[in-house]
Amino acid sequence: MTMKTQALVLLAGLLLSLPVTARTPADEVPLLMPGTRFPFKLWETEQLAAGLYAFRHSFYRTIFLVTDDGVIVADPLNDEAAAVMRKEISAITDQPVKYVAYSHSHWDHASGGQIFKAEGAQVVAQAGCAANMRENPHPNVVPPDVTFDDYHQISLGDHSLEMFYFGPSHDNCLAVIVANPANMLFLVDVSNPPDGWAMFYNPALSEERPWHMVKFLTRVTELIDERGIETIIGGHMGGSFDPVTNRPTIVKATSAPATIVRDRLAFWTAIIELPRAELAAGTPPEEVPDRIVEKGLLADRISGYDPKKMHILMRRLTSLAITGE
What we know:
Layout: H1 3-16, E1 43-49, E2 52-57, E3 60-67, E4 70-73, H2 79-90, E5 97-101, H3 107-110, H4 114-117, E6 122-126, H5 127-135, E7 146-148, E8 151-156, E9 159-165, E10 175-180, E11 184-187, H6 210-227, E12 231-234, E13 238-241, E14 248-251, E15 255-257, H7 259-280, H8 288-295, H9 307-323
Parallel strand pairs: 4-5, 5-6, 6-7, 11-12
Antiparallel strand pairs: 1-2, 2-3, 3-4, 8-9, 9-10, 10-11, 12-15, 13-14
């Protein structure tokens, strides 16, 4: 997104974050957000498979599983979103929420769980997330009751969420989550539908662990192949770019073919290699970002390519090539 579009999106998000009582039933009024091509409500619940639902609140998305023995919720998102999601769940089933599964520790996905904790839900997260929450607490983030290292399965009846930790990626504790029996992968922030080659919204990579992204995405693609997973559910509204104007749009993109993860692996492999190749050719480190941008490397491949963003990205990845971090 351009800075102008990002500012409009942030402004819209602030307006929409007002309490529901302060809006004239905005929860029922179609809203046309900046950059979108279609009107949509502030929130939306979609059934993706038997017992599996996606819940979107503004540009954020999570999932929940409904069974005869209770409900499993993934990221609660925030206090307002969680309260709305609880009402949406109540419209589907009278079963209690028994588990909340954090995909990672970032506050914009892990806040709001208290409403579920109050009805007796257990909160589950990778062990590193628990450490993050102790070291950097937030009043709206409920610490996990159950932690795991590499793998954990939450089961109710014939449904389950399997949580896999493949090392640092977008967070140091992000887990990829498989919803069964639908066999769909919930992958938050790492590769968002519909495009695995989209430019980062923040090219400084302040939230990423670049040194491990190729290994991480390799493990995810191996899991996809091993399980025969065909569908990825994203943690946000999707970003896309008009092929004619190259202007950003925002699309619904609840899910996408699992091939976008392989595309993201190719993306990371390619962008990491660019500064390494320039350094190997004898380009001084301080000149590497300029050279890559001047040559327009990957400009025809990266969706939403922006030379200024590419320069920032290459500064970060030149440092990776030199220091290993």
